[in-house]
Amino acid sequence: IDVGARSQIYETIVGLAAKGLAVIVVSSDLDEVLGLSHRVMVLSRGRSRGVLDEAEATRGAVMERATH
Predict the structure, then answer these.
(1) Which among 15, 21, 46, 57 is least surrounded, fewest beta carbons within 10 Å?
(2) Is the CB of residue 52 less than 8 Å from the CB of residue 39?
(3) Interatomic CA distance for residues 65 and 15, integer angstroms
(4) How far is CA 29 from CA 18, 26, 49, 62, 65, in A?
């Protein structure tokens, strides 16, 4: 996806969430996930390793759950 399309996708996601809709974002880009999410579910080896609220969802907290 080029930069322009990515920006448009982000705007759409943020707009839908602002209207109260749930949007599920699946990405291996941690910065992307942290920038778009109100809650983050960490999955590792096919299992849920925890759900973090926006305030808890830091790079370190996500990586800690993903590697244990």
Answers:
(1) 46
(2) yes
(3) 29
(4) 22, 9, 17, 12, 16
